[in-house]
Design a protein that fits this description.
The complex is a heterodimer of chains A (about 250) and B (about 250). With about 250 residues, chain A is of the alpha/beta class. Chain A contains seven helices and ten strands. Chain A is about 30% helix and about 25% strand. In chain A, the strands form two sheets. Chain A has a six-stranded mixed sheet, with helices on both faces. Chain A has a four-stranded antiparallel sheet with strand order 2-1-4-5, covered by helices on one side. The mean pLDDT of chain A is about 90. Chain B contains ten helices and no strands. The mean pLDDT of chain B is about 90. Classes of the chains: A alpha/beta (about 250), B mainly alpha (about 250).
Chain lengths: ~250, ~250
C-alpha cells in the first residue's frame, strides 16, 4: 500500500519563563493509506502537540509532515481533528453542525447528506436537537458524523473517547470499527488506553516521556472482530505496558 | 404549590417592610411622610388623570431610543475590538477611562450639547449603556473557546461563514448579558436625567410632585413604579436567555 503520511525528524519546543521546553524530539514515522495507527504514551508526553502538528494547527520547529507527497502547511478538511473535549458547536443543531463543513453543495443536498450521516452514527431522530440536549455518547457520535460527512481522507483522533464512561467508550469503539469497515479512512488515534489501541489499531507507536520520541512499534496482526480476552492480545498488552514502564505485577 | 413556597418568604419580607413603614408613620405622627395607603391612593389619582401613562411612556421612549442606539454601536464595535487585536489595544484604554465616569457627570455637557429636550436624556442613556455592552461583547469574543475556532478552521470555511456561524453565535450569550446590564443602567439613568428641566417622565414626575406642594405620596408612588418597571424590563431581557441558540451558555 502507498504511503499516506510521512513524518520526518519532527521537533517542537515551547518557550516559557523557565526557558525552552522540548515537547517533541525527533519523531519520524510513516502511515500507509487506509492504515489505523495508534499512538500511546504517558500523559503530558507531547502526544497532543504531535497530533496538532500533523493536523496543521501547530507549526513544527524542524522536520516535515508530508501528506500524499505534499508538505502540510495548514489545516484543511482532508484531515479532520477530533479532540478529547469535543468541538460540536453548541449553538447549532445536530443537522446544522453536520452541514457546517459542507461547502459547495446545494442547501437541500447538505441537509440530506447531514441526515444520512446522522443516521449512520445512530442519531436518527435527533437531527433537530441542540448539543446540550444530548448525552456525552451522543455528542461524540455527532462529532464523528460531522467529521465523516466531509469525507476526510484522514481522521486525527485525540483521546476521542476518554471523557466517556467505560461502557460507552467500548460501544463507541465498536461503532467506529463498523463505520471504518464501510468508509475507508486513514486514522491516527492518540490514546492512553492500551486496550483501546489494541482493539482498534493496525499498528501501535509507543512514545517516550517528554520530549516525545518513538520508543517502540508494535504491529497488531489480529483480524477484526478482536477478542480482547485472548492470550495473544493479553501478551501484546503486557509488552506495551512494559514499554510504558508499567510492570505486569502492578497491573 | 412549589412556586408559591418559593415566593412566600420574599412576600413576607415585603409585607413586614410595609407594616413597619406604616406603623412608624402613624406612631411618629408625621405630617409629611405618606403611609402606604396614601401612596396607593396617590397612584390611583395619577392613573385617573392619565398623567402616569404619559410619564411612563416618555421614560420608556427615552430609554428605548438611547438603549437601541447603544446596542447598534456597541455590538459591532465590541465584535471588532474582540476580533482585531489592533482595534482592542487602540480603543480599550480610552473606554477604560470613559467607563467609570458616572453618567450624572455628563449632565452639564449633555445640556450644553443637546439642550433640555429629549436629546439630552437619550444621550445620557446612550453613554451609560454603551460601555458595559462594548466590554461584554469584547470579552465574549476573547473567551470563545479555541476548540471551536480550530474546528471551523479545520473545515476550511470562508471568513464570512466563520464570522456568522461561529464568532457571532458564540458571543451572542455574552451580548445578551451586556444588554441586561446596559438596560439596567439605562433605566437608572433616565430617572436621574429627567430630574433636570423636562416636562415628562417618571423622574420629572417625582421632582414635580415634591416641588408642587410636597406631594410625597406621589414621590414614593413614582419610586415604587420605577422599581416595578425595572423589574419587568429585566424579566423581559431574561426571556432572551431562553432562546434555543443561546441557552447552551447559561445553566439549565
Amino acid at each position: 500500500m502507498r504511503t499516506k503520511i510521512e513524518v520526518r525528524d519532527l521537533k517542537k519546543s515551547f518557550e516559557s519563563d523557565q526557558g525552552s521546553l522540548s515537547v517533541v524530539a525527533d519523531v519520524s514515522f510513516t502511515v500507509r493509506d487506509g492504515e489505523f495507527v495508534a499512538i500511546v504514551g504517558p500523559s503530558g508526553c507531547g502526544k497532543t502537540t504531535l497530533m496538532h502538528m500533523m493536523a496543521g494547527f501547530v507549526r513544527p520547529d524542524a522536520g516535515s509532515i508530508v501528506i500524499d507527497g505534499v508538505p502540510r502547511a495548514k489545516p484543511d478538511s482532508k484531515g479532520i481533528l477530533i479532540s478529547q473535549h469535543g468541538s460540536v458547536f453548541p449553538w447549532l443543531t445536530v443537522r446544522e453542525n453536520l452541514m457546517f463543513g459542507l461547502n459547495g453543495h446545494a442547501p437541500a443536498n447538505k441537509a440530506e447528506l447531514a441526515d444520512t450521516y446522522a443516521a449512520i452514527v445512530g442519531l436518527k431522530g435527533f437531527e433537530g436537537s441542540y448539543p446540550h440536549e444530548l448525552s456525552g455518547g451522543m455528542l461524540k457520535r455527532a462529532e464523528l458524523a460531522r467529521a465523516l460527512v466531509v469525507k476526510p481522507e484522514i481522521l486525527y483522533m485525540d483521546e476521542p473517547f476518554a471523557a466517556l464512561d467505560a461502557l460507552m467508550s467500548l460501544r463507541m469503539r465498536g461503532e467506529l470499527l463498523r463505520i471504518l469497515a464501510k468508509e475507508r479512512h486513514t486514522v491516527m488515534l492518540i490514546t492512553h488506553d492500551v486496550e483501546e489501541a489494541i482493539h482498534l489499531a493496525d499498528r501501535i507507536l509507543v512514545l517516550s516521556p517528554r520530549p516525545a520520541r518513538i520508543q517502540a512499534t508494535f504491529d497488531v496482526p489480529f483480524p477484526h472482530p478482536r477478542r480482547l480476552a485472548s492470550p495473544h492480545v493479553q501478551d501484546l498488552r503486557v509488552a506495551i505496558l512494559r514499554e510504558l514502564g508499567v510492570d505486569r505485577n502492578e497491573h | 404549590m412549589k412556586r408559591i413556597k418559593e415566593v412566600l418568604p420574599s412576600l413576607a419580607v415585603i409585607a413586614a417592610l410595609i407594616a413597619t413603614w406604616w406603623t412608624t408613620v402613624v406612631v411618629t405622627h408625621s405630617v409629611i411622610f405618606p403611609t402606604p395607603w396614601d401612596v396607593v391612593s396617590g397612584t390611583f389619582e395619577l392613573l385617573r388623570d392619565g398623567s402616569l401613562y404619559r410619564h411612563i411612556g416618555a421614560s420608556l421612549m427615552r430609554v428605548g431610543t438611547g438603549f437601541l442606539l447603544a446596542v447598534c454601536v456597541a455590538v459591532p464595535l465590541g465584535l471588532w475590538m474582540g476580533w482585531v487585536r489592533g482595534a482592542y489595544s487602540t480603543l480599550n484604554p480610552i473606554f477604560q477611562i470613559l467607563r467609570p465616569i458616572s453618567p450624572i457627570a455628563w449632565i452639564p455637557i449633555a445640556i450644553l450639547w443637546f439642550g433640555v429636550g429629549n436629546a439630552s436624556p437619550i444621550y445620557l442613556i446612550f453613554i451609560s449603556s454603551v460601555f458595559p455592552m462594548v466590554v461584554q461583547t469584547t470579552v465574549g469574543v476573547h473567551t470563545i473557546e479555541k476548540r471551536y475556532l480550530r474546528a471551523a478552521e479545520n473545515f476550511g470555511v470562508s471568513r464570512h461563514t466563520l464570522f456568522t456561524q461561529v464568532v457571532i453565535p458564540a458571543v451572542l450569550p455574552q451580548v445578551i448579558v451586556g444588554m441586561r446590564i446596559g438596560l439596567g443602567v439605562a433605566w437608572l439613568v433616565v430617572v436621574a436625567a429627567e430630574m433636570i428641566a423636562l416636562h415628562s417622565g417618571l423622574g420629572y414626575m417625582i421632582m414635580d410632585s415634591r416641588n408642587a406642594g410636597n406631594r410625597y405620596d406621589l414621590v414614593v408612588a413614582g419610586m415604587v413604579i420605577i422599581g416595578l418597571i425595572g423589574l419587568s424590563l429585566d424579566g423581559f431581557m431574561r426571556m432572551l436567555e431562553r432562546i434555543d441558540r443561546v441557552r447552551w451558555r447559561y445553566a439549565h
